[in-house]
Amino acid sequence: SRNETQSVAEEVAVFRHQQVPKREMRAYINDVCKAADRLLRGDNDGAIHYLGEARQKVDTKYTPERYTVGCDMLIATLLTRSGRHQQAIEVLRHIEKSTDGVALDLQSEACGMMSDVYGKLNMSDSAMAYHSRQLALSDSLFRKQQYGLIRDMKGTYEIRKLDEQIRQMDQK
Predict the structure, then answer these.
(1) Residue 141 class from Cβ within 10 Å (0-12 exposed, 13-18 middle, 19+ buried)?
(2) What is the Cα Rg of the chain in Å?
(3) Residue 100: left if φ>0, alpha if ψ -120 to 50, beta else—which one?
(4) In this structure, are residues 99 and 92 in contact, taking their beta carbons and an 8 Å threshold?
(5) Which of 82-86, 94-98, 128-132, 156-160 has the lowest mean pLDDT?
(6) H or E stretch covering 140
């Protein structure tokens, strides 16, 4: 919405005038700022163009796929806003496939977005199918998080147990 994009207008303006030395992700950030600037001007096509450019300039070794998928998610959102639902669905299908088994949270979000787009097209069967897929992925994520918490608790317990054994040995 306009309020969401307006909230970053000041940050984009400040960043545009900064002299940032050549660093990882600088070109990506510059293009994302250009996309935000175009969006603030009401130029969705320009924003989509610069997001496409940004996704090609991801140069980090730390989860680069999250940055490219982030650009794709924004592109799909802008395509949906522009009424280009079929193009948005194509982008979202690509996201769903590229994140399968790699980033369940992003895959879940893409399914939720697809459900919304299909809902706008009055394709209720497809909307429900993707909504169900999103719920299944969210449930899987929740179970993995719970497993991680239990594993961490078990590890903490084991460390405390060893600490106690060491303390008892020191006392002896």
Answers:
(1) middle
(2) 22
(3) beta
(4) no
(5) 156-160
(6) helix 124-171
The reply to whether the predicted model has a pTM over 0.90 is no
Measured between alpha carbons, how far apart are the two ends of the chain, in Å?
A: 68
- What does DSSP assign to residue 22? S
Tokens coding 131: 């909504």
3-state secondary structure labels for all residues of 33-53: HHHHHHHHCCCHHHHHHHHHH
Residues contacting residue 14 through CB under 8 Å, at least 6 positions apart: none
Q: b/e for 122-133, b at 16 or more Cβ within 10 A?
A: ebeeebeebbeb
**Closest CA relative to residue 106, chosen from 115, 96, 116:** 96
Place of tokens 């009424």: 83
**How does pLDDT run across 122-158, given as a tens digit for each residue?**
999 989 998 888 888 888 776 766 655 566 666 676 6
Angle at 84 between CA 81 and CA 85, to 5 degrees: 90
